[in-house]
């Protein structure tokens, strides 16, 4: 394992989440660097679901940038909102995790196929909700981070484990920061 590549990936990941918490569009640029490098890290670690996830993330970075810049009302900046169909997103995560986990378990030599599949599928849900600036995206990220910390530690990806510990802390902070922003935006809309 190339620890320099892993360390560089972790740095860009930290910067991406930092800017995401602040609702700064630079999060997507740092995110693109992070996910591109992590494709190689996860391939080497035989975490194939994570590698596939990061390939998908490459495209989602562009979608996220566009959505944050032009996805709001009248093509203005997107505001933080709350999701109302949480059971749908939870159910989707469970079903797709089981499907991907089964495929990775039976068709590859993947390490921790179901856990890795969960990280992948829950991350995709979280990422989609984050692209749409949905407050609950942070709750998905918190759960993903806890599972990822355990798996990456077992795979001796220590810089990545440390990054996900930071991600966990940052996701908790992000949730409360976005909650405040959502409440301000809701109060502003009521006054208008």
Automatic annotation (TrEMBL):
Keyword Iron: no
GO cellular component, one term: plasma membrane
Record's function text: Required for nicotinamide riboside transport across the inner membrane.
Membership in a protein family: Belongs to the nicotinamide ribonucleoside (NR) uptake permease (TC 4.B.1) family.
Swiss-Prot/TrEMBL keywords: Cell membrane, Membrane, Transmembrane, Transmembrane helix, Transport
Source superkingdom: Bacteria
Membrane topology recorded in Swiss-Prot or TrEMBL: Multi-pass membrane protein
Compartment(s): Cell membrane
Keyword Membrane attributed: yes
Provenance organism: Flavobacterium cupreum
Any GO molecular function: nicotinamide riboside transmembrane transporter activity
Alphabetized InterPro entries for the sequence: NMN_transpt_PnuC
Transmembrane segments: 25-45, 51-68, 88-105, 138-155, 161-178
Protein name as it appears in the record: Nicotinamide riboside transporter PnuC
Main subcellular location: membrane
